[in-house]
Structure formats: C-alpha cells, structure tokens
Fold this protein.
Amino acid sequence: MTHIARQWHGITKPGRAADYVKHLESETFPGLARIPGFIGASILKRHVGESIEFQVVTEWESLDSIHAFAGPDISVAVVPDVARALLSSFDAHVRHYEIERRFEPQKR
C-alpha cells in the first residue's frame, strides 16, 4: 500500500517558534488525528536568522484521506488564522509525494 507524504513549510516571526509548535501540537495534530487515513506528522526546523523555518510533513493513507482534510483542491495549503499570525511567510501550496520505500535498520 502506497502512502502519501504532504509537505509544507513556513517561517515564524522572531520569537514565535515555540508558539507555532504549541499550536501544531495542541490544535492541528489532534484535529488531523480525527480524520480517517491520517498516519502521523513530523516537524522539521532550521534557524534562519532571527526566525525558525519549519517543514511540516504529514503522512496519509491515500489522496482521499487528504481530501477529507484539505477539501477539493489538495494542493492548497490549509493555514488557519492563528498560525498565520505566528508566521512571517509560508507556502500557499503544498507538495505531495508517494512514499516509495521506508528503511528502518534492524534492532540488535
């Protein structure tokens, strides 16, 4: 079964990175968890001057499950007003990738 990775990035306003992560953990991810087909999410970050750039990657069972979250045009980013207030810039559109393979080393 092929899963889909949905990738999006944004840059927080100076000093707002912790607030943005808190928003993802308290609002966004619990909401996604209620959607059938949502598998999980990762938050990647890097420092960009005084701000933090985030890459948010969500994993889904299918494009249908992404439609349940994003609506008819799944290429459009879903960025609620509370998140917009914390960000200085963000992608208006997302990218979707089929997860071809996953590698996990064997535990010894």
Remarks:
- The radius of gyration is 15 Å.
- Residues 84 and 100 are 32 Å apart (CA to CA).
- The first helix runs from residue 17 to 33.
- Helices lie at 17-33, 63-70, 81-84.
